[in-house]
Design goal:
Number of strands: 8
CATH class: Alpha Beta
Distance between the termini: 9 Å
CATH architecture: Alpha-Beta Barrel
Order of helices and strands: EHEHEHEHHEHHEHHEHEH
Number of domains: 1
CATH topology: TIM Barrel
Bound molecules: phosphoenolpyruvate
CATH superfamily: Aldolase class I
Strand content: 5-15%
Shape: globular
Number of helices: 11
Largest sheet: 8 strands, parallel, barrel
Length: about 260
C-alpha cells in the first residue's frame, strides 16, 4: 500500500532562527505519526543546517531546485551532486512558480527530472493547470502534455520511484483549494494515464495534492482514494499547522491499515 507523504515547500521563507525552531518542533511532533513520511524543502542556504538538525529523525530532506548539469560554468546554480552531498533525497521539479516566474520550459523540466534520478534522488514532479485552462476544460489536456514531455524524454520506467504532485496553479497560495472531488478526478486521470502502459507502476505511484492545503481541509482530501498526501506551502511554515496536516494523514492511514 502507498504510504501517505506530507511534504513542506518552504519557498523563500524563514531566517536561521525560524528554521531551527520549525525543525525542532517538527522533529518532536512527527514521532506521533509513524505511518506517514514527512519531507521538508528548505531554501538552499539552510539545507546543511537542516540536515544536521534532522539527524536521528524520520523527516527527509529535499531541495527546491537543481541545475541539470554535473558541474560547470553555471553561475548561481546548484548541481545534483552538491545536493546529494548535503543529504537531499528529494528535489522539486516543475513547480508552477518556476514555470511562470522563471519561465522554465517543459523540456528543461524534463532534463531536471532525469538529472535528479541519475543522481539517485527522487524528483517530485509538479503538474497543474491555470484558472483559465480549467475554465476552458483543458485540465486533462494540459496535465497530459506536462507528463508526456517528461515521459518522452526520460521513458516510462523513470516514473517507477518518483512522486507526482498535482498542483492546480489557481489554488497555490491563493487560499482556494480544489474540492476533494476535483482533486480525486485529476489524480485518477493521472493514475489511469500510467495504468494504460503499466498497471503496477500506476498503482505504486505516489500522487500528492498541492494548493492551499490546511489543517481543516486535509482530512477530506486525504480520504480520496488516489490522493496519497500533500505538497504544502504556506501551512508548512507553522509547525502546529503542518503537524495537524500530518495528523490527518496518519488518521487516514490508520483507517486504511
Ligand atoms: C506550493 O507552493 O507548492 C503550495 C502548494 O503552496 P500553498 O500550500 O501555500 O498553496
Amino acid at each position: 500500500m502507498r504510504k501517505k507523504i506530507i511534504a513542506g515547500n518552504w519557498k523563500m521563507h524563514g531566517n536561521r532562527a525560524e528554521v531551527r525552531t520549525l525543525i525542532t518542533e517538527l522533529k518532536q511532533g512527527v514521532t506521533a505519526f509513524p505511518k506517514i513520511e514527512m519531507i521538508v524543502f528548505p531554501s538552499f542556504v539552510f539545507l546543511a543546517e537542516v540536515q544536521a538538525l534532522l539527524q536521528n529523525s524520520a523527516i527527509f530532506l529535499g531541495a527546491q531546485n537543481i541545475y541539470p548539469a554535473k558541474s560547470g560554468a553555471f553561475t548561481g546554480e546548484i548541481s545534483t551532486e552538491m545536493l546529494v552531498e548535503t543529504g537531499c533525497k528529494y528535489v522539486l521539479v516543475g513547480h508552477s512558480e518556476r514555470r511562470s516566474i522563471l519561465r522554465e520550459p517543459l523540456d528543461f523540466i524534463a532534463k531536471k527530472f532525469k538529472a535528479v534520478l541519475q543522481a539517485g534522488m527522487c524528483p517530485v514532479l509538479c503538474v497543474g493547470e491555470t484558472q483559465e485552462e480549467r475554465e476552458k476544460n483543458m485540465t486533462e489536456k494540459v496535465i497530459d502534455h506536462q507528463l508526456q514531455t517528461v515521459m518522452d524524454f526520460c521513458g516510462l520506467d523513470a516514473f517507477r520511484e518518483v512522486i507526482i504532485a498535482y498542483e492546480p496553479v489557481w489554488a497555490i497560495g491563493t487560499g482556494l483549494t480544489a474540492t476533494p472531488e476535483q482533486a480525486q478526478q485529476v489524480h485518477q486521470f493521472i493514475r489511469t494515464l500510467f495504468a494504460k502502459q503499466d498497471v503496477e507502476l500506476a498503482q505504486n505511484l505516489s500522487l500528492l495534492y498541492g494548493g492551499s492545503v490546511k489543517a481543516d481541509n486535509a482530512a477530506s482530501l486525504f480520504a480520496m482514494p488516489d490522493v496519497d498526501g500533500a505538497l504544502v506551502g504556506g501551512a508548512s511554515l507553522i509547525a502546529k499547522d503542518f503537524l495537524a496536516i500530518a495528523k490527518a494523514a496518519e488518521q487516514v492511514s490508520s483507517v486504511l491499515c
